[in-house]
Amino acid sequence: MLKKINKFRKSLMQGLTKNVGSNTGNKVDFKQEEIKRILICRPNHRLGNMLLITPLVQEAEKTFPDATIDLFVKGGAASVIFQNYASVRNIIQLPKKHFKQLGQYIGGWFKLKTNKYDLVINISPKSSSGRLSTKSARGRFKIFGDIAPVDASNTEMRHIAKYPVYNLRNYISMMGGEPQEGAVPGLDLRLSEAELRAGKEKLHNLAPEGKPVICIFTYATGTKCYAQDWWGIIYDKLLQKYPEYDIIEILPVENVSQINFRAPSFYSKDIREIAAVIANAKVFIGADSGMMHLASASKAPVIGLFAVTNSAIYTPYSNGSVAIDTSKCGENDLFDALDKIVGRAG
Hints:
It contains 14 helices and eleven strands. It is of the alpha/beta class and 346 residues long. Strand 4 (116-122), helix 6 (128-136) and strand 5 (138-143) form a beta-alpha-beta unit.
């Protein structure tokens, strides 16, 4: 019932706010070099959605190298994700559970009025809170997220991390500026050398023989989670087909395993620590989830498993990563993809 109510609430709010705001700013007044303060709005608490902001932040850094960036978000993940982004100066953070912390929630919205921005960007045009925060913020130029038309056949434009980047490029071009060109930046946690060394040591403790490691993540929320029987078959075949590799399972905060903890496992509440461990692995295999996006942001090659969500929207796309639609593809396709990543392709 709660899920149905929440779905209805989201649908209602999207309907009420779909026409809130229009992309603003006088084209004559737009001078790219004068954009010094940027606000990016993504008031959502999910780990994956926070990680999916990182390509746009990188794009903004390249396009406006002298600018500082503020983020309007929800929950505490952004402060951890962007801690090594020198351009990110201030994070306006709404509480995850706003009804329980109503004062902080209202205070976060009032903070939007504190500063003046040269450019305000809404990440998701379907986000009612994103549109409202972009409308509320004090900004000379505003992008509400619906400049670039989405072609259903264009997987580049449909991707949730790439679309905001193309949207920004289209806006700058429309305003007479010089947008970036080429490939969209990948997800990036910007792990430090110290973090990577610590992750390598932790991985070595789990795989002391020094074999390269294949990381698996067997959990996901709701219908995205694959059954124990499915994962049991995959794990057995990994052991059989890749004896020269150690298989390490990354555990979720729920501390559950779809292979009944048969593999050596790693668990941490620190997402940067988890990412540093994955970064030292040869490849990561897991279903569409925040952990999959975290692995992608660690810059490890990722094999993303999709059955109920749209791979065109959420696929891991950098560092040689691939998506496998298991509703259409079989186990052999997964292992073919793995062979290519580990260099077994003939």
